[in-house]
Amino acid sequence: EQGLQLLELGGSVEEDYIRIARCFEATRQRCCRLEQDGRRAREQLARVEAERAALEVKLKHARNQVEVEMKKRHRAEAELEKQERKLQLVLELLMREPWGNEALSREQCSVLSALAGRRLGAALAPVRRSSTVDESCQSLLSHSDISYDRTEDDV
């Protein structure tokens, strides 16, 4: 009886060892799959970080270009205002001087007075071109459509 019990015990222990070995093998295979998944995830992360860094460089260049273009625009607007003031002075001079009226035809005088009136009205109104867009051009793209945010420059 005792021998039979030992044989039964031995048989069940052997099966237990086989089950444990199978569990260890399944766990080892699972660990290998997880390690491969982790390696793929790290590679993908490295690719995405490289792409993000490249995009940040492009964004920085685009922001710098926008800043340069805005400065050019402000300089051009200042020059335009200066030229408009000169034109206004010339028009006023031509309209006020008696010799100016004599030298010009009646049609030229009416055109100049209409032009002077329009320029004078525009000159008296506060001009803020840098913050608004001349809507008469029906432009599809204006500088006001550009979101220029420097808060992420430190990234």
TrEMBL record:
Alphabetical GO biological process terms: mitotic cytokinesis; mitotic spindle midzone assembly; Rho protein signal transduction
Domain of life (superkingdom): Eukaryota
One GO MF term: GTPase activator activity
Keyword Coiled coil: yes
Coiled coil: 38-97
Keywords: Coiled coil
GO cellular component, one term: spindle midzone
Record-given protein name: RGAP1 protein
